[in-house]
Amino acid sequence: MVTVVAAALAFLVIGGFLYFVTIYNGLIAASRNIEKSWANIDVLLKQRHDEIPKLVKVCEGYMKYERETLEKITAARTACIQAKTVGESSQAEGSLAQSLRTLFAVAENYPDLKANQNFSQLQQRVSYLESQIADRRELYNDTINNYNIRINEIPDMFVAHMLNLQPKEMFKIAEDDKKDADINFEFPK
Amino acid sequence: MQGRRFRITRGFMSNDRDIAYAAFFCGYGVWAFFRGFARLRRERLIENIPTSTVRGLAMGLVELIGQAEEARLFKAPLTDAECVYYRYTVERYQSSGRSSHWVTVAKGDSGCSPFWLKDATGKIMVFPQGAEVMMPIDYQFETGLFASMPETLSAFMRNHALGCTGTLRFKEWRIEPEEMVYVLGTARNTSNPAEDHKNKLLQRLEALKDNPRQMAEVDSNKDGTVSIEEWDKAVNRVEQALIEEELKSGIENNGVNVIIDRGDAGEVFILSDEDQTQITKSLSWQAFFGVFGGAALSLAMLAYLLFRFGVWNRF
C-alpha cells in the first residue's frame, strides 16, 4: 500500500518536473524562433542590397534624366547598411522599397531599358526578393503572435512570469511607406 | 532474525503467468508515461513553428502546408488508387496455444520517391523517406466469414507469394494528387548535385535490394540468382529514372536545388494529410493517455504484483 502511494507520488513529482521542463523549453524555443525569423529577413535584405548597385548601373545608361530617382535608391541603400537600430533599419528598408517601386514605375517610360535583358533579369530578381521579404515578414509576425499567445496562456504564463518574458511587437510598416509611390517623370527638355 | 517470506497468492492464471504479464504491463506503463511527455513536446513544437510559404522558406526546420503534386505517380498496392505516396501493412491473426495476436506478414511504402508540395507561391520537392507519417488509414479490410477478399487484394497476395489462409487484415495509407499535405521537415540546399545524386542512387538501390518482388523482376532469366549483368541493367534503369527526375526537378525549381527531407541530424520530420489542428489534437490525446494512462496502468500493475506476492500490507 505504502509502495503504491510512494510510486504515485514519484509519478506526480517526475510528471510535474517534466511538464515544467516541457513548458520552459517550449517558451525558450518560441523566443529563439523570433530571433531566427528576424535574422532570416536580414538575409534577404542583404541579397537585395547586393542587387541594387547592378540595377542602378544598368539603369544609368538609359535613364540619364532620372538622376534624382537613382540617387534616392543609392542613398536609401547606404542608409540600410549604416542603420544601427531596428527602428532605423525598418525605416531605411521602407524607403529603399519605396524607391525601387518608383524606379520600376519610371522604367516603364524607357522601352529600350525594358528591353535590356540585364535589366529585365534584375527587375525580376529584385521583385522576387521583395515578395520573399514580404513572406518572411509575415512569418516573423506569425512567430511573434504565437509567442505572445503562448506567454499569456495558462499554464505557460506562470513559467513566462518566472522567466520575465515580455510580449514582443510585430513588424510594422512606417506610415510614409503606406502611401502611394510618388512618380515624377523627368522628360528631356 | 527471521527473514521475510513471500507467499504467492493464487492469481487468475493457474501457472502464475499473470505475474509476468503484470510485470510487463507495469514496465509498459512507465514507458507510456514518458512517451506521453514526448508526444506533448512534439505537439508544442508543431504549435510553436508558424507555417511558411514555399517562396519565403528559410533553410532549416520549416512547416509547410500545400497540395501534393506527383513527381512520379504510383498505384497504391492494395487498392490500385493513384497516389504520390503510399504505405501498407498486411497482418495475419495467429493463435498459438492460449495466446492469439496479429502478426505482420507484409509491409512496404513508396520508399524514397519524392513528390511536389505546391502552395500559392511555388512548389518544392519533398523526400518522404524517414518521415513520421501521421495519417488516418485510407483503406482497411479484414477478411472474415461474410467478407470475401476483393480482387486487388487477392492479386496482391498472389504477387507477393503470400497465402490467403486465416484471418487477414489489410491497411493502406496514401497521399493522392491534389490532396492537402502537412510537412514539418528540414529545408536544405542540395548544393552538391553530384554527391546528392550518388546518395539518392545508393538509397534507391538499397530499397531495391530490400524488396523481394522487385528483386524477382531483376532476375530476368528466373534462375533464382541475380547475375552481375542483370544487376548492372537494374542499376542503369534506376539511375536513368533518377536522372529524369532530377532534370525535371531542376527545371521546375528554376535551377534552385532546395528540398524538404529528414535532414542530416535526424531532426523532426512529420508528414500528414490532416490539418495542423487535427494533428495537434491527436498528439494532445496521445500525451494525455500516455501520461495518465501509463501512470495508472503502472500503479495498478504494481498493486497487483504486491497483492500476488502477498506483501500488499507489508510494503
Your description of this structure?
- The complex is a heterodimer of chains A (189) and B (315).
- Chain A is built from six helices and no strands.
- Chain A is mainly α and 189 residues long.
- In chain A, helix 1 packs antiparallel against helix 2 (67-82) and helix 2 (67-82) runs antiparallel to helix 3 (86-107).
- Chain A is rod-shaped, with a radius of gyration of 25 Å.
- Residues 181-189 of chain A have low confidence and may be disordered.
- Chain B is α+β, with helices and mostly antiparallel strands and 315 residues long.
- Chain B is 39% helix and 25% strand.
- Chain B is built from six helices and 13 strands.
- Chain B has helices spanning 17-48, 151-159, 193-209, 212-218, 228-252, 276-308; strands at 60-70, 74-75, 82-83, 85-96, 99-109, 115-119, 122-126, 132-133, 139-142, 168-175, 180-189, 258-261, 270-272.
- In chain B, strand 4 and strand 5 form a beta hairpin.
- The chains are: A mainly alpha (189), B alpha+beta (315).
- Chain A binds chain B through residues 1-4, 7-8, 11, 15, 18-19, 22-23, 25-26, 29-30, 33, 36-37, 40, 43, 128, 131-132, 134-136, 138-139, 142-143, 145-146, 150, and chain B through 33-34, 37, 40-41, 44-45, 47-53, 55-56, 58, 60, 121, 291, 295, 298-299, 302-303, 306, 312-313, 315.
Question: What does the secondary structure layout of this molecule look like, with pairings?
Answer:
The complex is a heterodimer of chains A (about 190) and B (about 325).
Chain A: H1 2-62, H2 67-82, H3 86-107, H4 111-115, H5 117-152, H6 156-163
Chain B: H1 17-48, E1 60-70, E2 74-75, E3 82-83, E4 85-96, E5 99-109, E6 115-119, E7 122-126, E8 132-133, E9 139-142, H2 151-159, E10 168-175, E11 180-189, H3 193-209, H4 212-218, H5 228-252, E12 258-261, E13 270-272, H6 276-308
Parallel strand pairs in B: 7-12, 8-13
Antiparallel strand pairs in B: 1-6, 1-11, 2-3, 4-5, 4-10, 6-7, 9-10, 11-12, 11-13
Helix pairs in contact in B: 1-6, 3-5
